[in-house]
Write a structure and sequence with these properties.
binds guanosine-5'-diphosphate, alpha+beta, 4 strands, binds magnesium ion, Nucleoside diphosphate kinase
Length: 162
């Protein structure tokens, strides 16, 4: 049984999700966490941090040529961020669906940005956009020992057991 659980856990994907300073200041931490939790995804790491500007530049390195890069990095480092790792089948791609399109004007109602944000520069949440980015971002934000692997007793009610 334990072996089965270990195999199941090994198949599980992980993604990096951050509530940006606007989401924290607007009191949306619990709201955002609950959307991932209610879906059936599992929280395996969480902390509150104020990233330095240098750290924000590392996080958004792929956008360094964009005109909004400097403002974006200033903003990400302007206050507390909730950094998290979520685990589950398909969590990288589906996490992006829960989040909605980058521009909240284009995000569908029912998504986090669609329901809770209005402009692209204050879209309250970050989520990794693919498996490689997820791995890199988890490594940037967390030490390996900050990630906690555990079973939830009701997991078979989410994934089944056969
Ligand atoms: P995401 O993966 O959906 O967060 O979008 P991107 O990786 O393309 O961009 C990262 C972040 O940069 C977005 O979440 C926005 O906060 C910001 N951003 C993206 N495009 C624009 C833009 O055109 N203008 C401004 N001001 N910010 C932008
Ligand atoms: Mg992105």
């Amino acid at each position: 049984m334990l072996q089965e659980q270990e195999v199941h856990a090994a198949e599980m994907e992980r993604t990096f999700i951050a509530i940006k300073p606007d989401g924290v200041q607007r009191g949306l931490i619990a709201e955002i966490i609950s959307r991932f939790e209610r879906k059936g995804f599992k929280l395996v790491a969480i902390k509150i941090v104020v990233p330095s500007k240098d750290f924000a530049q590392k996080h958004y390195h792929d956008l360094k040529e964009r005109p909004f890069f400097n403002g974006l990095c200033d903003f990400l480092s302007s206050g507390p961020v909730i950094a998290m790792v979520w685990e589950g089948e398909g969590v990288i791609k589906y996490g992006r669906k829960l989040i909605g399109a980058t521009d909240p004007q284009k995000s569908e109602p029912g998504t986090i940005r669609g329901d809770l944000a209005v402009v692209v520069g204050r879209n309250i949440i970050h989520g990794s956009d693919g498996p490689e980015t997820a791995q890199d971002e988890i490594k940037l934000w967390f030490k390996p020992e900050e990630l906690v692997s555990y079973m939830i007793s009701g997991e078979k009610w989410i994934y089944g057991d056969n």
